[in-house]
Fold these 2 entries.
Entry 1:
Amino acid sequence: LRFLLVLLLAGAARADNDPPNYSIQIGIATKAASLVLKPAGKFRLIDPVEGLKGTLAANKSYRLEPLERGLRLGSMIVSPDTRLEQEGTGGSIMVGDRTYGGKLILRLDEGRTVTIIEEVGIEEYLRGVLPYEMDPDWPLEALKAQAVVARTFAYAHLGKFRKAGFDLTSDTRSQVYRGIGRDAESVRRAVAETRGEVLGYKGELLTVYYHACCGGRTLGTEEVWGSPSPPPLRGVKDSLCSMSPHHEWLAYFPAAEFLAAVQNDHIYGGKIESFKIHKRDTAGYAKEFKLVVGGTTLIIPAAELRKRLGNTELRSARIKSVKKHGGGVELIGRGSGHGVGLCQWGARLLAQRHTRYEKILKHYFPGSTLSLVDK
Ligand SMILES: [Zn+2]
């Protein structure tokens, strides 16, 4: 999918340019054995074969189950791809413990499971992304920067999961999206006040990224994933997030746990004889580690080590020092997340210093342009 971009010139273009709110499809529950739906407000049931089939009553629970060729919803049998659309506006429907405001499509998967797709305007979608990607209590300008980045991300990745039958997933493979259950005034404002705005580069949508805390410098896509970086994604110095609780961290792994993770399918056995940083990058972070265990030497790239030890235990791949300690290994690192694109803690601090979101975005994506998606 390609979108045309309109350059946004300092405030002027906004009023007479009402940006489109593209309808997108999100896989909100995939391959489930069964699901419980509970509407708040009346919902019409539109069967692709039989047409309008009935109405779901408000505040009643309906179990959705797969059948051989169709679906059971409460006491009704419906065709696959039946749609649920609310009568009027302002209603919502619960799927499990989450609340959604869009239209639902009930799908029967091969292998007899059910998938629910929500069809929702991208602006409403963002209201269900922001609270899970940034704390709604953070300053408005940081939330607005996050809204632009999340919107850009969504547009740039639309259709990525077409094979699975929708545009985006509702988990970290796309962006975390949990519907409208956690509605916050700050989030509504951040989305509304940046309506339609995305980041572009040379007239194209920029493929953007964001993370919790960079630890001193954001990284280029090339450094992290080996993919070429356009100028806005080559990394910038960022001293701002040094006040973040993620700025520096320490992780400890007992020997057994560490060895099980790093040795993968080969167990060499024995003790950790040594564990050191083998190569450093220009910023002084570990590029490769050298582990000697049971007489065998392993060279492990930093990104690989993070993958093996887990993203939550090892908050970033930016490791400053390591040592053997108390029978296991201790690692000291900086930042949280992959380090590419918007540093959320840095954005928070900039916003606290009254920096507007346009400037925050310029800082993290130099050379990018704030644009509107065209109709
Ligand atoms: Zn930072």
Entry 2:
Amino acid sequence: MTINFQLMDNFSPTNRTQLHRIPQRATYEVSKIYGILDEALVCHVGFIVDNAPIVLPTTYARIANQVYLHGAQASRMLKSLKEGIQISMTVTLLDGLVFARSAFHHSMNYRSVVILGQAVEVTDLSEKQAALEAIVNHMQAGRMEHTRAPNPKELRATMVLRLELNEVSAKVRTGPPVDDEEDLSLPYWAGVVPVRLQAEQLQPAPGLSQHAQSLGIIPFSSNER
Ligand SMILES: Cc1cc2nc3c(=O)[nH]c(=O)nc-3n(C[C@H](O)[C@H](O)[C@H](O)COP(=O)(O)OP(=O)(O)OC[C@H]3O[C@@H](n4cnc5c(N)ncnc54)[C@H](O)[C@@H]3O)c2cc1C
């Protein structure tokens, strides 16, 4: 089933994507889900191979209502996924560590997305190039203009898979700890430690020419890593 994403504000929950546990934290809002996917850098892909489940971390990028995965043609993960098996892809942004008065109520603030579906191999060259460009630009907007594009040999060596966003859910926790009434006067610190991914000082690659070194990279904007 392909949904015309331009016409909808929310993904429709299905039997598989309906949150049961703390359902008030669910959102199916397309713009929120796209925002989480665009901000996070790493996804985890869960699938069954040789009759056993495995979950592997990898990079990805979103274009419109699709996410793209890429890797070596020899990747067991990609070779398995392109057979059309059911997969689950998940992305998590950690926003805070939630310290409660009780050990039981410690938690985390987060925004996470779960995508269910089947991936297909991208064979169209222009879509493949666009996907690879999006994956590079996902590390930093505009980076593709400051790097050498893949050559035909590199393109042949790379497999790209597309996963349509149809069965999608997001879960978002915000706010302070939720302690039990009888614990509120206990002498323990409680509250939230906000956390975020932060870029540190650049570490130039060995052998970088003086010219390249002087170029640096495009500065990250303040709300980016
Ligand atoms: C950083 C982080 C830390 C967490 N720590 C814990 C923990 O310590 N213990 C714990 O039990 N849970 C934790 N969770 C929540 C966990 O992801 C599950 O939501 C929860 O365990 C309920 O699982 P369930 O199988 O009962 O979900 P159900 O509500 O039955 O799941 C049904 C469907 O809801 C959707 N869904 C469920 N969870 C998520 C999610 N997180 N994001 C997007 N869609 C979702 C999926 O489509 C899923 O198929 C954490 C989540 C994050 C992001």
